[in-house]
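Why do we bother with a discrete structure alphabet at all? Because it lets us treat a fold like text: something you can write down, compare, and reason about line by line. To make this less abstract, here is a complete entry for Pyruvate formate-lyase activating enzyme. Read it the way you would read a sentence in a foreign language you are learning: slowly, and without expecting to understand everything at once.
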Amino acid sequence: MEGTKGLVFEIKRFAVHDGEGIRTTVFLKGCPLSCIWCHNPEGISQNKYIWQNKGECIKCGACIDACPQGALVMTANGIICDHGRCRLCGKCAKACPTTAIKFDSQEMTVEQVLEIVRKDREFYGISGGGLTLSGGEPTQQYEFALALLEAAKKEGLHTAIETSLFCKREVLEKFVPLVDHFYTDIKLFDGQEHLKYTGVQNEVIKDNFRYLAGKGCTITCRIPVIPGCTDSDDNISKIAEFVRDTKGNISLELMEYNPLGAGKYIRLGKENELADAKKDHDNYKRLQKLAKETGVRLVG
């Protein structure tokens, strides 16, 4: 199992917002949702992707010369990658003297990931932290995710997972004995609205949420408060009532909109549909109060 490989796009040490205590969060590639506000767009595709940081590009043209497919072109706005022609050979990344162009992820074994996770073991013990799997959607690479969680549990680490719950029940069942805390999303209560903004319906998500609750799992349900998308009074109230009425060890957390992921869309050459969205802290606090008034156990 330790030789099982997965595609990892980031490992964040000393994470303090991805579960209890100080944690190491491992971000796995691949997500079945396509939320228009996604803060980790590099995690949506299950494949490697070319990542461009134009702020580091010195326009030397070395990457253009190295590309056998002619996928890179110099323009007035800098070097542009035609991802349709790119074959991910990596020659451009090797030729770049400033790392302005590189892959957005790397293939790693369970043991390679654990070597990094173990570095902060003493901080986990002091703070009650541990390992968190995130993404993307970790259940998309379920064999690797399960192997990593199993290895972490053998070493006595607390485990958590951030998941949309959009997965087959038979896959989710395998995570139950290996995960100490599930951090789930219910982004939109209405199925059609959920389809509009995320690309998928939400019945599977709701059913899997009820399943975890029935198994006695510790669950924190999160609502990302996205301007113009998820931040209506009706949406927040209905999700809060759903969580309240689902019996179990469950809490609700509203996640304030953060526009800091916008730069990733530029590096990936993708359109950011919420480029003009603004953070509204006053409305966020108002919605927190609204959710609390339903009687749900609110955290954060």
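What the structure line is telling us, in plain words: Residues 50 and 103 are 5 Å apart (CA to CA). The two ends are 36 Å apart (CA to CA).
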